[in-house]
Amino acid sequence: MIETDILIIGAGPTGLFAVFEAGLLKLKCHIIDALPQPGGQLAELYPKKPIFDIPGYPEVLAGDLVTNLMEQIKQFQPGFTLGETAETIEKQEDGTFIVTTKEGTQHKAKAIAIAGGLGTFEPRKPLLKDIEFYEQENRGVDYFVKDPEKYRDKNIVIAGGGDSALDWSIFLSNVAKSVTLVHRRNEFRGALDSVEKVQELKSEGKIKLITPAEVVGFKGSERIESLDVEINGARMHVETDYFIPLFGLTPKLGPIANWGLEIEKNAIKVNNALDYQTNIEGIYAIGDVNTYPGKLKLILCGFHEATLMCQSVYNRLNPGKRYVLKYTTVSGVDGFDGTRKEAEKAVVKSID
Amino acid sequence: MTDITIKITDRNGVLHEVQAPTDMNMNVMELIRSYELAEEGTIGICGGMAMCASCQCYVLNDVLKTERNDDEEAMLSEAYHVKENSRLGCQIHLTEDLDGLEIEIAPEQ
């Protein structure tokens, strides 16, 4: 069982920044996210797109903001349970919570901060007969690349026309035995450098492109052996070990919707006059996942909500304890890893 | 700049005639959200980047003269429930020449 002070559900910018604010108050955090990497929407949907309304950054790429947040929180040593979906919550008699993921990992925490954004990202699946059979138990259909090593020296087919299909094709072309990219159109849509790189790898024979084409069926009794691909009305047969459809992700509030929280317009109602706590004491909701009068779904608002949430958790865990807000410039930052960041001392010296 | 009138059929088949501002840099997806004609969380999920198709609409008359742009075309090629007259609401900018536009919101993805 993983134990922590604040269990954060969602590794987007709001959840990541909460680790920093919690750390200043000596509270430890652990984060669960359904995606295999931290960053939430920023990493999954638009890593190469700029954001213009983060205070102090005239312009920052979404992916860079995530990298910076990870750097900012690293001395507070957050734990991560990635690629798993929080499914059930149990409130214990002593006021702590036990959250179990769909995959069975258990987490015990003194407070819960749901920073789930739009919800759990679920893959958009191609509508194909028998696909449910092949997506189980390593039978060959994967919707995420969780561990690239799994595909070493294997034949893989990726389907899709966006950034993730392009980027994984590029990455896996160095790992897999062969990479075939199937897309419905001749045009791909992604960052210019990704499209150019795939073009280059295609010319070098490292990626095979099949367009405009669509995977229409599978063959294989125990697991996938080959795919039926339709190209210009004709059928072709492509032997493969893995089929990875990357058609984007749709967010769903998911199992959290059954936790007994008050929900309005697909978002969790919170007390915005105080601390962003939900109707269940000890469970908070911060960032895009919550709602209250005047709510704005902005990253900068999520940062603010995370900060107030941490103060509230501190007060709940340390009732009556005297505490005043500290400024990092004055007090510095003491990491759980023993590091200390502090302002350089000014000199006190006479000038002749 | 004046308001224009747009007719929107929601996902339950109910017709709404709404007034849309043309001076607020808004698009059809945002107009639908501002009148809450589709449940929050089921429309405009990607925020308007043509990356999710949750704001797909069917254009019902010929007021709209622009064609799908490249991003829109790419997204619609992978979306569900797509018809000849499908567009992404987030890619239709509200301008004065769209007065009288009639659209229907496509089913959820």
UniProtKB/TrEMBL annotation, chain A:
<feature type="binding site">
    <location>
        <position position="33"/>
    </location>
    <ligand>
        <name>FAD</name>
    </ligand>
</feature>
<dbReference type="InterPro" id="IPR023753">
    <property type="entry name" value="FAD/NAD-binding_dom"/>
</dbReference>
<dbReference type="GO" id="GO:0050661">
    <property type="term" value="F:NADP binding"/>
</dbReference>
<keyword id="KW-0285">Flavoprotein</keyword>
<keyword id="KW-0560">Oxidoreductase</keyword>
<dbReference type="InterPro" id="IPR050097">
    <property type="entry name" value="Ferredoxin-NADP_redctase_2"/>
</dbReference>
<protein>
    <recommendedName>
        <fullName>Ferredoxin--NADP reductase</fullName>
        <ecNumber>1.18.1.2</ecNumber>
    </recommendedName>
</protein>
<dbReference type="GO" id="GO:0050660">
    <property type="term" value="F:flavin adenine dinucleotide binding"/>
</dbReference>
<feature type="domain" description="FAD/NAD(P)-binding">
    <location>
        <begin position="5"/>
        <end position="293"/>
    </location>
</feature>
<keyword id="KW-0274">FAD</keyword>
<dbReference type="GO" id="GO:0004324">
    <property type="term" value="F:ferredoxin-NADP+ reductase activity"/>
</dbReference>
<feature type="binding site">
    <location>
        <position position="41"/>
    </location>
    <ligand>
        <name>FAD</name>
    </ligand>
</feature>
<dbReference type="InterPro" id="IPR036188">
    <property type="entry name" value="FAD/NAD-bd_sf"/>
</dbReference>
<dbReference type="Pfam" id="PF07992">
    <property type="entry name" value="Pyr_redox_2"/>
</dbReference>
<feature type="binding site">
    <location>
        <position position="329"/>
    </location>
    <ligand>
        <name>FAD</name>
    </ligand>
</feature>
<dbReference type="InterPro" id="IPR022890">
    <property type="entry name" value="Fd--NADP_Rdtase_type_2"/>
</dbReference>
<comment type="similarity">
    <text>Belongs to the ferredoxin--NADP reductase type 2 family.</text>
</comment>
<comment type="subunit">
    <text>Homodimer.</text>
</comment>
<feature type="binding site">
    <location>
        <position position="14"/>
    </location>
    <ligand>
        <name>FAD</name>
    </ligand>
</feature>
<feature type="binding site">
    <location>
        <position position="121"/>
    </location>
    <ligand>
        <name>FAD</name>
    </ligand>
</feature>
<keyword id="KW-0521">NADP</keyword>
<feature type="binding site">
    <location>
        <position position="46"/>
    </location>
    <ligand>
        <name>FAD</name>
    </ligand>
</feature>
Automatic annotation (TrEMBL), chain B:
<dbReference type="GO" id="GO:0051537">
    <property type="term" value="F:2 iron, 2 sulfur cluster binding"/>
</dbReference>
<dbReference type="InterPro" id="IPR001055">
    <property type="entry name" value="Adrenodoxin-like"/>
</dbReference>
<keyword id="KW-0479">Metal-binding</keyword>
<dbReference type="GO" id="GO:0009055">
    <property type="term" value="F:electron transfer activity"/>
</dbReference>
<keyword id="KW-0001">2Fe-2S</keyword>
<keyword id="KW-0408">Iron</keyword>
<dbReference type="InterPro" id="IPR012675">
    <property type="entry name" value="Beta-grasp_dom_sf"/>
</dbReference>
<protein>
    <submittedName>
        <fullName>2Fe-2S iron-sulfur cluster binding domain-containing protein</fullName>
    </submittedName>
</protein>
<keyword id="KW-0411">Iron-sulfur</keyword>
<feature type="domain" description="2Fe-2S ferredoxin-type">
    <location>
        <begin position="2"/>
        <end position="109"/>
    </location>
</feature>
<dbReference type="InterPro" id="IPR036010">
    <property type="entry name" value="2Fe-2S_ferredoxin-like_sf"/>
</dbReference>
<comment type="similarity">
    <text>Belongs to the adrenodoxin/putidaredoxin family.</text>
</comment>
<dbReference type="InterPro" id="IPR001041">
    <property type="entry name" value="2Fe-2S_ferredoxin-type"/>
</dbReference>
<dbReference type="GO" id="GO:0140647">
    <property type="term" value="P:P450-containing electron transport chain"/>
</dbReference>
<dbReference type="GO" id="GO:0046872">
    <property type="term" value="F:metal ion binding"/>
</dbReference>
